[in-house]
Amino acid sequence: MLKIAVLVSGGGTNLEAILKAIENGDIPDTEVVGVISNNKGVYALERAKNHGVPGFAISPADFADREKFHKALLEKLDDLSPDLIVLAGCLIKIPDEMITRYKRRIINIHPALIPAFSGKGYYGLKVHEAALARGVKLTGATVHFVDEVVDGGEIIAQKAVEVKEGDTPEILQKRVMEEAEWVILPGVIGDIAKGKLSIGE
Ligand code: GRF
User: 128 an active-site residue?
Assistant: First the structure.
């Protein structure tokens, strides 16, 4: 059984896609052992609850400093002892200690075709605003391993999406989520669950 912990920050649509893929068998032999949000009251935690998955809010605002927040996050992950950690709409910078402890066992979904529109400052709608400003005809999403460089880890999967006349950042974000993110993230987790993609060192 592949045990995964999912880290979220907001709406949780990628989490929903993962939970649905587990429930319909597209991702076999897998259990989400916990969902951790750095923000309280986000809909992603509602989604976890609706699917009977334990949800935890571990917010930097509740700790005296960043180091104590990181310690609490790592302790929760140690409790859950996942095989794989999935960053699904997660906006916190992952501490180096976590990257070391879960080497090649943390994956992230980025809403562009890395290396385009990636790295520091490129997240959420900003990614799509930059793609539209540049005038690209194709954009998409990328699943990659997380290492010390923001959006710089080994690329695992990508899926291209057409940019259409009149697209706004919101319209483009929705198309990238529907046609790419919600497809390749469950797809990669399914490959890991089926042993088609190895994780860890
Ligand atoms: C999405 O644009 C995703 O690509 C990015 O965070 C945004 C929200 O994701 N990583 P979700 O709806 O919270 O999964």
Answer: no
